[in-house]
Structures are given as C-alpha cells and as structure tokens.
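A brief tutorial aside. Many learners find it easier to grasp structure tokens once they have seen a single protein encoded end to end. The record that follows does exactly this for Cell division protein FtsX. Read the sequence first, then the structure, and try to relate runs of similar tokens to stretches of the chain.
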Amino acid sequence: MKAITFKGHLVESFKSLKRNGWMSVAAFSAVTVTLLLVGVLLSIIMNVNKIASDIENDVQVRVLIDRGTTSQQRKVLKKNLSELDSIHSIKFSSKEQELKNVVGSYGNEFKLFGGDDNPLNDVYVVKTKKPSQTVTVAKKARTMKHVYDAKYGGASAKKLFRIVDGIQKWGIGISLLLLFVAVFLISNTIKITILSRRNEISIMRLVGATNSFIRWPFILEGAWTGLFGAILPIIVVDIGYVWVHGILSASLASTGYRLLSPGVFLVQIDILMILIGILIGAIGSGLSMRRFLRI
C-alpha cells in the first residue's frame, strides 16, 4: 500500500470516529471497561503465579532417616536418592540441627529434649527440579532402606498445585470471555457505521475499488477505538498497582515473598493492554465488514 493511500485511510478513519459521535464514545467505553478488568486480572494472575512459584520452590521432600543408621549407610542412602532423575539437590540435617530449628520456631522449652532425649531423626532435605515432582520423589524415598518416612507437605502441597492451576485456567478463561464481549461490541458499533455508509461503499465498488481499499478505513477506525479505549485502563491499573504494591509489600516482607516490581511489570502490562486494544478493535471491524464485501 502506498504511503499517500494509507495516509488517506488514516484521515478517513479519524473522520468516521468524529461522525459517529456517541457511538464512538460507547465503543471506547466498552473497550475501557473490558481492558480495565483484563488488566486487573492479568496483574492478579501474574502476581499469584509469582508468589506461588516462590512457595513451590520452598516445597521440599524431608527424608527421615532411621534412628541408629550408620554414617556409611547414610552415604548409601544419599547415593540412592541422588540417582533419582528429578533430584536437584540433597542437604543433610542432623537431629541436633532439627532440634535447633524446632526451638527457634516454637520456643526454648523444647531444649529439654537435647542430647540422648532428642526424639527427632536425621534428615535429608531433598529439592526436586520441579515442585510437582515432590510427590513422586517422596513415594520412591519411602521404599528405600534406612528411611523412616518421607514428607513433602502432603495435602497442602497438592492443594497448592491445584489452586495455582485453577487460578491460571479461570483467569485466562474470564479474560478471553471479556475480550470476546469487547470484540462483539466494537463489531456492532462499526457495523452501524457501515450501514450508514453502505450506499457510499456500493458506489466505491462500482467504480472498481478493491475490498482491501474499502476495508482499511474501518479496520483503522476499530484499531483507534481500541487504542483510545486502552488509555484510561492503563492509567488506573498503573496507579492502582503502585498503591497496592506499597501496601502489600510491607505485609509480605516478613514472609520472604514479594510482588512483581512495578517498573518493568507495568511497562509490560501497559504494552500488552495497548496491543490487545488495537487487536480486538481491528478484529471487530474486520468481522463487521465481511458481510458487506461479499461478491
């Protein structure tokens, strides 16, 4: 397409937006509401995934070693554990260290169980390459010699994996539904514009105008609708996220988990919302033109 032709299409698309008046405002509003909800959902999903990933990375298999196991037998057990395909690292924690951890978490009264009265086991703390592999590793570890038990968080770990998977699926599903609604609304708005100009379109076709020549101004009009409709959601999401990040970061500081930093994250979200806005606007316009360009 020649530059002068494309410039003409741009001018025509702006004129069409102005001619439509309140219909254009309605289309902008539809995109604004949709992208605002999509932006909020994406922010929640991406941060939940980030925190869930941090939590998952802390999920470990604690292999409790039988009491009375010799150092040589422990070495054999470690070798057997390391031969499992999904093992990332293995760290030994003596029963004395385990007792120190208990005292640090629950209080000095547990110091009474020191020395020969220590009821705890030596432990191999095993990290897997993927958090979801902890269940399989725990089951295999329980079948090995000199293993008293293997714990991985049990139902809590499984529940965490289900929650993360559910958030991802529902979040993506709702976002797609919202985008579909926006495409439908934009398509109907552009369709009204086309109906008001169908005589003009018919004349253009009679004088030999190609389908692409007729289609481009409407596609650009839809793209502008999506672009302008993305401005307010970007502002609201950026300001809102910085505010929420400031509040929740202080609360999460003690847990060791953090939300995504506003800088790069917001730039990515902003670009994504602009692209989504332009795309759904162009698609909506393209769909509404199909009926009028059939030969």
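Self-check: The first helix runs from residue 3 to 20. If you spotted this yourself, you are ready for the next section.
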